[in-house]
Amino acid sequence: MGVYHAGSRAVQDLAGARERADHVGRSLGQDIKPVAAAFLELQPLLVVGAADPGTGRVWASALTGAPGFVRATGPRQMSVTGGLVPDDPLAAALAVPGTPVGTLALDPRTRRRMRLNGRLRPTARGFAVEADQVFSNCPKYIQRRESFERAGGRGPGASRRCGRLEPADAETVRTADTFFVATVHGTGADASHRGGNPGFVRVVSPHELDWPDYPGNAMFRTLGNLREDPRAGLLFLDWDTGTTLQLTGEARTEFRAGGERTVRFTVARAVRTEDAVPLRWSAPEFSPANPAG
Q: What is the signed CA dihedral for 275, 122, 74, 22, rounded to 10 degrees?
């Protein structure tokens, strides 16, 4: 498998970033190195992205557990203990052997993140992912949250599903400083992170939102996937209450003079779950990389 597919190459060329992307791409590999394995075992949260095998819709979901619930169980294998609640829109995908998945472990305490993409295999205790690509990202746009606690007695309520953003959903989006995005391409899936000061994601209507694509590592994996396949899934997490908002739909990127880019997302379905994540994080210290305004 090559480091980049045609979609990523096309966006790199539009951005004039192919040479930098080639340099950064040397960090991608299949092996889970000891420092990455140690990082995984400290995490209480893992984001997973994939396409539902029945509907074809792409979703991003949050899995949680005591540190150690995610760990390397081989030089190219990550194992996860536990799974999603049965009514999570991604639960069906995680039960199908061979499902392409993208995973992201992000630690707000250290502003570090690690991505592992590969093929899923259900196990007796959860699932494992055979790695195709393993890599870390720079700390840009990650808000520091110094600590977390497990909220006693918190458990997921019934999910509310609809085909648009309700007022509470729009407020969740407008006040978010972080969200996660899942995308797919012909041979795989990817889960990534977007961050900025609250308000960086704009609600255009109950059916559309957009956000600026800030300069990153020049790989353009998310935008490259969207160029080949517009399906995407977004996950907004309330870091205090544990409420999640999952959106699925399609996204397109608009390129403007001067290199500025905006991603526009059209909502097909929205799933809101109160108390979905049993973690309560401390207040954020915003990243110094966040653009003002």
A: -80
Can you give the pLDDT of all 293 residues of the chain as single tens digits?
468 888 899 888 888 888 888 888 888 889 999 999 999 999 999 999 999 999 999 999 999 999 999 999 999 999 999 999 889 999 999 999 999 999 999 999 999 999 999 999 999 999 999 999 999 888 999 999 999 999 988 888 889 999 999 999 999 999 999 999 999 998 899 999 999 999 999 999 999 999 999 988 888 889 999 999 999 999 999 999 999 999 999 999 999 887 789 999 999 999 999 999 999 999 999 999 999 86
C-alpha to C-alpha distance for 186 and 237, rounded to whole angstroms: 28
- With helix as H, strand as E and coil as C, how does 45-72 read? EEEEEEECCCCCCEEEEEEECCCCCEEE
Instruction: Give domain limits for the chain.
Output: 6-281
Question: Rounded to an integer, what distance in angstroms lies between the CA atom of residue 41 and that of residue 39?
Answer: 6
How far from 272 is each of 158, 228, 263, 269, 276, CA to CA, in Å?
A: 9, 28, 22, 10, 9
Backbone angles phi, psi at 258, to 5 degrees: 90, 0
Tokens matching residue 120: 């899923």
**Quick one: CA torsion of 49, 52, 58, 59, rounded to 10 degrees?**
-50
- Domain 6-281 in CATH 2.30.110.10? The answer is yes
Residue whose structure tokens are 């956000």: 211
d(Cα 163, Cα 68) in Å, to the nearest integer? 36
